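Training component of the fellowship. As part of building independent skills, the fellow (R.M.) carried out the full modelling exercise for a liganded target. The chosen ligand was DLL. The inputs are recorded below so that the supervisory panel can assess the work.
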Amino acid sequence: MIFNMERETLPREELEALQLNRLQNLCERVYANVPFYRQRFDEAGITPGDIHTLEDIKHLPFTEKQDLRDNYPFGLFAVPKENIVRIHASSGTTGKATVVGYTARDLDSWATLMARSLSAAGITRSDLIHNAYGYGLFTGGLGAHYGAEKLGATVIPMSGGATKRQVHLMHDFGATAITCTPSYALHLYEVGLDEGIDMRNEPLRIGVFGAEPWTDAMREDIEEKMGISAVNVYGLSEVMGPGVSIECAEAKCGMHIFEDHFLPEIIDPVTGEVLKPGETGELVLTTLTKEGVPLIRYRTRDITALDYTPCRCGRTHVRMRRVMGRSDDMLIILGVNVFSSQIESILVETDGLSPHYQIVISRDGTLDSLEVRVEISETLIADGAVRNLQQLESRIQKTIKEYLGVSANVRLVEPRSIQRSEGKAKRVLDLRTQQ
Ligand code: DLL
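Fellow's submitted model of the complex:
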């Protein structure tokens, strides 16, 4: 269902007029209130008055994660601190956390956009949403929570962890929708089976999954196992949190970016040049309405493409393709670029494997070596087909070489031997940085 019919189906011309108006206003705001942006604009020799069309955005400077770090913690805030009502932060494995602040209006917009998102996924006010995204500084938990309330659904503020208890509560309360990372959904499913709860026989019907890259093959696997419709949701804390874009239940073919609030571009991650619609590159987002920490041309590092063709759901907002991975997480193995999601597709499509895997990169002398550890499925053991493991390993190795052009050492491991995560899965272990 379309939560805000008027806004989500605005004809492109009107949408662009609204975006331009908001972009001009944004430039005035950041120039006047954020010394960092005033300096960047001055260095680029541009003033807010120079933005006459949406295309003019290309003259504006980019903002990078490092800029948030350099201005840690509150340097990019655009309003007096007393107007900030909440702060979130993302931990980041290297360097300082990135900190974002929200005004009361920002929180209201966020809740509205998450309500739009849940609604696009097919959730209604009659649903009971089991929210297993982590609550806290991470934006997943509270983002989904307030969206669910705005929609008028019932939300269980579960957060991550205590997985056994989660599956029992899902069963006892009769959860009809679940929000968590796709990897945690699979973990809940497994623990459910251990506890005698088969998700297929539960009233659960929709899952809204995101916060980490996953593939269509993984979607099919989850949908099959859990007997639900699995929908992809995207967002990042710097820009807002979950709810920047979402697939519609009707087409499930790319995630609609809420363009009345975010202006997307795709750039070449190396040259910074703006690419044409349909071309694959790095997603850059400008926040059109955010008051607390508005961002101009924020480089997300996420690799995707934009699709402006009409969608059958009736929404006019552009769709971004499933994120392949992050440009800074791309594995470069002996000069070949590989994303873990490409390896995932191959693994999940191979019979006899479970969707739990880990990629280990190490340096053997001067050469990079890639090992893929993947669990065999319990059914493979039950079928007594374990004797052919070596054959299976070499078959997967061959497929990876054929499709991705890299040599991988595939190691089949026992069911449940790879560590499960309660939030974002850590799929890649790069030992090169530790050597
Ligand atoms: O992960 C916000 C979120 C919470 C999104 C819950 C969806 C659901 P961060 O922790 O700042 O925020 O991480 C943002 O996660 O730049 C992407 O690399 C990745 N990411 C988020 N959603 C998806 C997705 C939250 N659907 C970073 N597919 C982003 C692939 C995703 N990657």
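The panel noted the following from the submitted structure. Residues 12-33 form the longest helix (22 residues). DSSP finds twelve helices and 21 strands in the chain.
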